[in-house]
Amino acid sequence: IYLVGFYEEREFALYVSSISNELRIPVRYLREDKPHGSAGALYNFRDLIMEDNPSHIFLLNCDVCCSFPLPEMLDAHRNYGGMGTILVIKVSAESASQFGELVADPDTNELLHYTEKPETFVSDLINCGVYVFTPDIFNAIQGVSSQRKDRENLRRVSSFEALQSATRNLTTDFVRLDQDILSPLAGKKQLYTYETMDFWEQIKTPGMSLKCSGLYLAQFRLTSPNLLASGDGTKNATIIGDVYVHPSAKIHPTAKENAVVTNAIVGWKSSIGRWSRVQAEGDFNAKLGITILGEAVGVEDEVVVTNSIVLPNKTLNVSVHQEIIL
């Protein structure tokens, strides 16, 4: 498993080590030296990815929340016989334009048309940001780079190409998966779709992480109920709904009297006083739709924190509403 990003390696060192031990398979973080695009990044690390000569490659966007039906996708992909298969889902016509819309053959599931965030409605079928490819994807990416190099070598360009400044100014090794790979290959029996009937969300705001946690907890109820806290009734502990308690966490009877936390994220080493409330309206798409306390934040007795973000190492002794506390 490879994680690709721009952050320093040290930011992921502890996580990568922990998840490798938990999954018992190698996990490695790869840092890009410069932007290569969603497809170009894959090509940039092709030698590492192909080191063990895999027959198929899964590509997952980091901001996706879903059940990730990878085994089912792979089976469908093998039956299709194409270069790639895209996980798709049907959404309302009103929200479809926020994503990559596509048209698929209802009988063969072949991708016939793809457009990224169109201004006019195209389809209620959208790209979920989960893919499975054969290694031929690298040839397709290389082909885009080669075309760009050829255009750079031409002394004269057509008037149409001259108008395509956004594409013309891209470097040869910057390749976008959606515009440069999916759109041109649509309708050429190279790409197919697999529709999921499960939940799917895109994590674009801090609030969505809370909503997605709820979706995963509900999924655990069906697939991994052993992960959920059951509550054995000792010390008057009561578990309501789907709850996960990390093995390192303790629900202690010294929790402050009548303190309330709802629609909020509480950082490490933070404390919440008696009769205090850390709360929000729960508008998961809004910037201040939830309340977030950074690491080591102290909320003193009888303080109400609503729809606010508090950076680490702050102590609040007065109530705040819709504020960002630096």
From TrEMBL:
<dbReference type="InterPro" id="IPR029044">
    <property type="entry name" value="Nucleotide-diphossugar_trans"/>
</dbReference>
<dbReference type="InterPro" id="IPR011004">
    <property type="entry name" value="Trimer_LpxA-like_sf"/>
</dbReference>
<dbReference type="InterPro" id="IPR056729">
    <property type="entry name" value="GMPPB_C"/>
</dbReference>
<comment type="similarity">
    <text>Belongs to the transferase hexapeptide repeat family.</text>
</comment>
<dbReference type="InterPro" id="IPR005835">
    <property type="entry name" value="NTP_transferase_dom"/>
</dbReference>
<feature type="domain" description="Nucleotidyl transferase">
    <location>
        <begin position="21"/>
        <end position="157"/>
    </location>
</feature>
<protein>
    <submittedName>
        <fullName>Uncharacterized protein</fullName>
    </submittedName>
</protein>
<dbReference type="InterPro" id="IPR050486">
    <property type="entry name" value="Mannose-1P_guanyltransferase"/>
</dbReference>
<dbReference type="Pfam" id="PF25087">
    <property type="entry name" value="GMPPB_C"/>
</dbReference>
<feature type="domain" description="Mannose-1-phosphate guanyltransferase C-terminal">
    <location>
        <begin position="256"/>
        <end position="324"/>
    </location>
</feature>
<dbReference type="Pfam" id="PF00483">
    <property type="entry name" value="NTP_transferase"/>
</dbReference>
